[in-house]
Amino acid sequence: MTAREQLGTRGGARQADVGLMVRKAGGEVDVVPLQSARLSVFDAVVPWREFRWYRGQRHFSGSYWSATMQAHVGHESRLEYANLLLADFDPRVDWILSQPFLLEGEDKGTRRRHIPDYLIVHADHTVCVVDVKPAAKLTIPKVRDSLSWSRRVIEPHGWEYRVQSEPDEVLLRNVQFLAGYRRSFQFAGGDVTAALGELSPDPPSRFG
């Protein structure tokens, strides 16, 4: 069993009544109990919903070319895009999936279904499930209850659960500027190596 397959084993037995559904590239849907979910479940998955673009659309949907994934990652709003950009720039992040799964289960007599915005895997093999919501909506009872339920079922599984809102504006603008220079295909490999050598704390002497 790989390190990714072993993730999320802590406390999962209490989540037997919660189902986790993933959509595969061929259109089929796989369903597993949350307590049994390992990262191998997400092999060849696609986002749960399609990212649509049409005239008059209220939300800013799109796809962002991720240097971490070396592929496009989807978003459904400008706020999701901002938080995706910061995750992609985080050196601890190893893997980013958008709309990775659908959670379904009972919550005190209420049947809940929820699609988190992102699944993030860090280089140390820890997992974080992310929901992105404007700060102004976090006190709305329907939103608050849905996020609270998600936290209660995800965290006992051993995965971190995080709700993210508007990031620091200065930080975001700086990362937006720098992000354009993280696309390795734009630069010759020799040029990148030479630049790193010049910027290293102790560059080699040109005089031997």
Biggest β-sheet: count, sense, barrel? Answer: 5 strands, antiparallel
Radius of gyration: 20 Å
Query: What's the mean pLDDT score?
Result: 84
Order of helices and strands: HEEEEEHEEEEEHEHH
Give keywords.
208 residues, alpha+beta, five-stranded antiparallel beta sheet, four-stranded mixed beta sheet, globular
Question: What do these coordinates show?
Answer:
This protein has 208 residues and is an alpha+beta fold. The protein has five helices and eleven strands; from the N terminus they run αβββββαβββββαβαα. Strands 1, 2, 3, 7 and 8 form a five-stranded antiparallel sheet that branches. Strands 6-9-10-11 form a four-stranded mixed sheet, with helices on both faces. The longest helix has 14 residues. The radius of gyration is 20 Å and the shape is globular. The N terminus is likely disordered.
In short:
The protein is built from five helices and eleven strands, in the order H-E-E-E-E-E-H-E-E-E-E-E-H-E-H-H. The protein has 208 residues and is α+β, with helices and mostly antiparallel strands.
Secondary structure layout plus pairing:
Layout: H1 3-6, E1 19-24, E2 29-33, E3 45-46, E4 62-66, E5 71-75, H2 78-89, E6 93-98, E7 102-107, E8 110-114, E9 118-122, E10 127-132, H3 141-154, E11 160-164, H4 169-179, H5 189-199
Parallel strand pairs: 10-11
Antiparallel strand pairs: 1-2, 1-3, 1-7, 4-5, 6-9, 7-8, 9-10
